[in-house]
Amino acid sequence: MTLLKVNNLSKKYAEKYAIKDISFEIEQGEFFTLIGPSGAGKTTLLRLIDLLEPPTSGQIEYNGWSLQTLPKKKIVHARREMGFVFQNPVVFSSTVKANVAYGLNFRKLSTDEIDERVQSALDMVGLRGFEERKALTLSGGEIQRVALARTLATEPNLLLLDEATADLDPTNVALIEKVLKKFNKEKEVTIVMATHNFFQAKRLGDSVGFLMEGEMIEIGTTDQIFNNPSDKRTEAFISGEMIY
Ligand SMILES: Nc1ncnc2c1ncn2[C@@H]1O[C@H](COP(=O)(O)OP(=O)(O)O)[C@@H](O)[C@H]1O
Ligand SMILES: [Mg+2]
Question: What is the C-alpha radius of gyration for the chain, rounded to an integer number of angstroms?
């Protein structure tokens, strides 16, 4: 089943296109990585999908709903099925537990259910026992795992990640990659992950989109993009020839 359908999507800031006439589809349960050099438009594309800003033209369909023409109530519904993890997440000065529960407070859940979801999310990211720690006393990697737990606790159907491991040490990168893989395989959560690190895309993605200067240069299976790219620019990027 197609979960996400992007049709001729463009986003213009001042006179410049950050996203230029992009079309592609993502299946339910797919792990899609979005690669490309800095400034390619990865963050912009994720923000458009998450409805954080409107496109200049074109449409996005989520689950068969056209997000640009959907009534407000349905928009809230669609957005609740999406989770977004940023490169530099914000944590509040409260406890780890309060930080992870944060996204659940708007969802009319019982205290028991909130506790259960917080526990299970902290388990997933390897932070059991950290409940009462002040979030601001954690390391960068732990903070990113709290942010991931906060998003996982909302049980998203579509998980959007923007360079979520870019500033982390290898141990935390490995841990987060493992959680993402597990979440994707066991819960069939669809993942769209932007990364400028093509090794990471190679490790994680079922399929890959290569974005450059706002254009989707090439989309394919991970195997095809890395072993048999059809565009010279993709080849330059994944061979490390392209400096960015
Ligand atoms: N709010 C904004 N206002 C003006 N230009 C922006 C804005 N956001 C992004 N851009 C521009 O859009 C282009 C794509 O940026 P971005 O999506 O952040 O790329 P990436 O995430 O791949 O590094 C860049 O040229 C960037 O400067
Ligand atoms: Mg970015």
Answer: 18
With vertex at residue 214, the alpha carbon angle to CA 209 and CA 215, rounded to the nearest 5 degrees, is: 55
Indicate yes or no: pTM above 0.90: yes
Asked if residue 243 has pLDDT above 80, the reply is: no
Domain architecture of the chain: domains with CATH? 26-54+65-81+157-244 (3.40.50.300), 88-155 (no CATH)
Contact between residue 88 and residue 167 where contact means Cβ atoms under 8 Å apart:
yes
Query: 98-124: buried (b, 16+ CB within 10 Å) or exposed (e) per residue?
Result: bbbbbbbeeeeeeeeebeebbeebbeb
Largest CA distance in the chain: 55
In this structure, are residues 80 and 154 in contact, taking their beta carbons and an 8 Å threshold? yes
Confidence of residue 107 (pLDDT cuts 50, 70, 90): confident
Ligand 1 pocket mutation, candidates 15, 16, 44, 163, criterion most atoms within 8 A of CB: 44
pLDDT in tens, 5-37: 999 999 999 999 999 999 999 999 999 999 999
**Judging by beta carbons within 10 Å of its beta carbon (0-12, 13-18, 19+), is residue 81 exposed, middle or buried?**
middle
Bridge partners, residue 85, by sequence: 161
- Atom number of ligand 1 nearest to Cα 40: 22
Residue nearest ligand 1's atom 10 by CA: 18
